[in-house]
Amino acid sequence: MAQVKYVLLLPLTYNDKSKVPKDVRRRIFDDLYRLANGYTIAGKGRGAYRMKSGKKQVDWTLQVWVAVEEEDEDALKEMVAGFAELLGQESMYLERVNSTVEFIPPKAAGG
Predict the structure, then answer these.
(1) Residues 52-84: pLDDT tens digits?
(2) Where are the chain's structural domains?
(3) Rounded to whole angstroms, how far apart are CA atoms 106 and 5?
(4) At CB < 8 A and 24+ separation, what contacts does 43-49 make?
(5) Which of 19, 30, 37, 91 sits in a 20 to 30 Å window from 104, CA-based?
(6) Distance of alpha carbon 59 from its chain centroid, rounded?
(7) How far apart are the first and last CA of the chain?
(8) Is the CATH number of domain 3-100 3.40.50.300?
């Protein structure tokens, strides 16, 4: 069955620049795994965000890809809102990619 791909930018530091502990990241990845049955860490990047106060916040993030069934999109958004609370973020970047994800099994033996 086809799924919808999302890109999540997961901050590696809190807004005070202290590192997000590995066990917190592991908990986030475990939650994503339970919902989406997997995830891909596509790389590390650096970006800037204008806080509500007008302050410029620069963060290192992990780009995380997940593919979910359409009926699980609301659950993913709710989960990401929980990550934002856990990490003390004003908001979290979550992008629905205009594509369809399919997991193709190998051909059966003999064709």
Answers:
(1) 999 999 999 999 999 999 999 999 999 999 999
(2) 3-100
(3) 22
(4) 44/12, 45/9, 47/9, 49/90
(5) 30
(6) 15
(7) 21
(8) no
The residue whose two tokens read 């809102």 is 81
Q: Which of 13, 5, 19, 10 is nearest to 62 (CA)?
A: 10
Q: Given a cut of 90, is residue 28 above it in pLDDT?
A: yes
* Cα distance between residue 93 and residue 82, in whole Å: 13
pLDDT at 102 over 90: no
Q: How many CA atoms lie within 13 A of 64 on its CB side?
A: 26
- Rounded to whole angstroms, the Cα distance separating 110 from 80 reads 44
CB-based contacts of 14, cutoff 8 Å, min separation 6: 20, 87, 88
Q: Are 68 and 35 in contact (CB under 8 A)?
A: yes
Distance (Å, whole) CA 25 – CA 78: 17
Distance CA 47, CA 97 (A): 19
Which pTM was predicted? 0.87
